[in-house]
Amino acid sequence: MTEPKIQDVARLAGVSPSSISNFLNNRMGQMRPDTQAKIQQAIEQLGYRPNNAARQLKTGVASMVGLLVPSLANQFFGALACAVETAAARHGCHVMTFSTFRDPDRERAVMADLLAYGVKGIVTGSALSDTEHLVAVTSRCPVVAFDIKRNDESHARIATISMDNAAATTLAVQHLVTLGHRAIALVTPPPYTLNRQERIRGFLQAVGAAGIAGELVIADATDGPSDPHGDTRLFELGRSAAARIVTAASRPTAAIAINDMMAIGIGVGLKQLGRRIPADISLIGIDDIFFCAAHDPPLTTLRQPIQAMADAAVQRILAPDEKPDGALFAPELIVRSSTATPPR
Amino acid sequence: MTEPKIQDVARLAGVSPSSISNFLNNRMGQMRPDTQAKIQQAIEQLGYRPNNAARQLKTGVASMVGLLVPSLANQFFGALACAVETAAARHGCHVMTFSTFRDPDRERAVMADLLAYGVKGIVTGSALSDTEHLVAVTSRCPVVAFDIKRNDESHARIATISMDNAAATTLAVQHLVTLGHRAIALVTPPPYTLNRQERIRGFLQAVGAAGIAGELVIADATDGPSDPHGDTRLFELGRSAAARIVTAASRPTAAIAINDMMAIGIGVGLKQLGRRIPADISLIGIDDIFFCAAHDPPLTTLRQPIQAMADAAVQRILAPDEKPDGALFAPELIVRSSTATPPR
DNA sequence: CTGTTAGCGCCTTCAT
DNA sequence: ATGAAGGCGCTAACAG
User: Name one Pfam family in it (chains A, B) (predicted).
Assistant: First the structure.
């Protein structure tokens, strides 16, 4: 239970602690090979590992970046966390992840915890419930946001990573139009976030450009069970929205969901209503979470390039001098089996 | 970018640093209320947060536990990470999570990283690819495993948290037998882990006790794409195993999958073969991941009490003196719509 | 090329 | 009830 320290290694190797330190930090510029060998052997013999706390205290920086997500139990954010971990590893960094459960107080608290750990920067995939507070954090370390509510001047110091949300819905509409659809619905929760607003804008624009009917279905259910993990709510919202798609005035033959979770809910709702997908109605999601492939039928979707986005987010923090890797990331249309030509 | 330190607070509050320290550690025994108030105000005014690295260096322990999972992109382990985070929070602890991607070298490396951070203990949900190494780690800090390959004497120092795996399959069989099934298949990858062996044992035993036919389908595909995230492989294995269920000599009218991911794959495969669930064949999974509810039809499953298990794992590390909270956790049968009476 | 030294920010006796 | 002092393990000058 008592770890060997740098002095123990130095003693065993017959050199001074600073040589060990140099060795550990790859400052081998002027070190004789035999010294290196001795050090290496002493380290292994003792099973020595440098104490991160001491190192951090001395250097002032941890080799950690912080990550905030609504919940790791949410498939999308689990995948995001995985991508961020991979991205950080490329820079020799570790990731400390916190779930906020969409609780503003908890969000504030874990931000403070992250700061106390001396993280090099914070990536947040959690909605910004308290903009003021987040902005304050930027004075302590770089902050990169994946989801942002507004995009005004107060966020100048918050870097934003985003897919081209308008392009996603535009591509979806174009795919559907090519298939022959003339009336399409977009199903979304209330557009509180910029992401959603952009998706709506892209939808409206594409539908207008194609000269077809666009039906906006805002699914809002305050009666649902509270949902700290963020999965259930969207799913349920989608399921209950299915009826509104079916009864919409413009008689849509296809539905675009604000994301895959909602699409899956819509799929279940539609089937309960006796509609077949895609024979009666086509369905498209956004994100490309794993279960799109397992859905019945496999779900056509617009894939978010999560790894590329995570790479960019981490790069903004750990290598801010490199060229900012693109502003908006392009969604990729993944055609599976939930879209087809409209009935009749 | 430069954090206030304890001295700054002391100066502003007009007291000594140690009073601040006492305040921070709730050693308020002899402190005058007005002093406390001054300190409190100074802290808020400066936005002061104690430096974790310094605290840890001094006290020797971090308030962190480590968590190893194959990948957070895997739904089950995302949920597990979430549960562990919640459990640790109850003890005022944070969690540092690493994905191993089932790479033994990486597993070793991140274990070492965790040790270097001075974690209080390590929870591993990753298969033990290198038992020797893990055992070595137990001399540095407590280790709790969720999934273990063997259970021999060498693991005496590794605490194990497990659902009663045999009970899960037994319950599944009993549920099916009650429904009227007389021939049941268990579909599993090769039983490399104790978990799987136990599930098989429970299955065989229950099937024998009921006097019905039990078909063991070992799905083994080395030709599949490598799958660092662990989702795809099981899904694909399930899908390709569907044909073997259908053609099995005992003509099973129901299938139990080793877990939900595989069950979902089996479901897709069965449908591709033209079989309806549950009309033609019943299907049961194990775990109760979120998508069971979204599956078509909603999947009957044996729920793992993840939160209770996470609580127990964390307790073993952070409060080892309390009574060990049960050895085996009971699975809970969640009946949805994928099971019904057999055809004819 | 390697050893010596002086803290990093905090906590913990021990005095006061 | 509060202040002073030493050191946790490591790194980064600077000596030698």
Answer: Peripla_BP_3
